[in-house]
């Protein structure tokens, strides 16, 4: 197997890499990169390191090379090509269809079975499955802020 020269780490770098591996708040990809570099500091082949961290030998080589070039800064993701995002994570969540719907609307199914149906937009789920529907139905509608699920639920009277 092909062996490479072990990577030399300073005490501060080793401490930081070990902190990243132990921390529960570290993202998995960053933890694996830190593990790769810690293992590269020992006389182990890239293939064996890849097996230990569930990473391809070529990926191990990539992270080793980036660490040697830029030290700890090399383990950070490089900027992605292309136009930057117009809206951040929080703005995209606010614009998602689920956040614009508001509370569900309960509607009696009109069959006299004593069941209510949750309505979102123009579709509702009834005892017979998914059907098209309209909020402008002749049966009564009621907004229920506490009802958070989708499905059929018995109603009183």
Tell me what you see in this structure:
By secondary structure, the protein is an alpha+beta fold. The chain folds into 2 domains: 65 residues; 55 residues, no CATH class. 37% of the residues lie in helices and 15% in strands. A hairpin with a 6-residue loop joins β1 and β2. α2 packs across α4. The longest helix is centred in the middle third of the chain and has 14 residues.
Characterize the main sheet.
Answer: 6 strands, antiparallel
Please report the distance between the alpha carbons of the first and last residues. Answer: 77 Å
Strand content: 15-25%
Shape: elongated
Radius of gyration: 28 Å
Q: How many structural domains are formed by the residues?
A: 2
Order of helices and strands: HHHHHHEEEEEE
What kind of oligomer do you see?
single chain
Helix content percent band = 25-40%
The mean pLDDT is 73
Derived structural class: alpha+beta
Strands, count: 6
List its salient traits.
157 residues, alpha+beta, 6-stranded antiparallel beta sheet, 6 helices, elongated
Question: Strands, helices and their partners?
Answer:
Layout: H1 11-22, H2 28-40, H3 46-53, H4 57-70, H5 89-95, H6 97-100, E1 105-108, E2 115-120, E3 123-126, E4 129-132, E5 141-143, E6 152-154
Antiparallel strand pairs: 1-2, 1-5, 2-3, 2-6, 3-4
Quick gist of this model?
The protein has 157 residues and is of the alpha+beta class. It contains six helices and six strands; from the N terminus they run H-H-H-H-H-H-E-E-E-E-E-E. It has two domains: 65 residues; 55 residues, no CATH class.
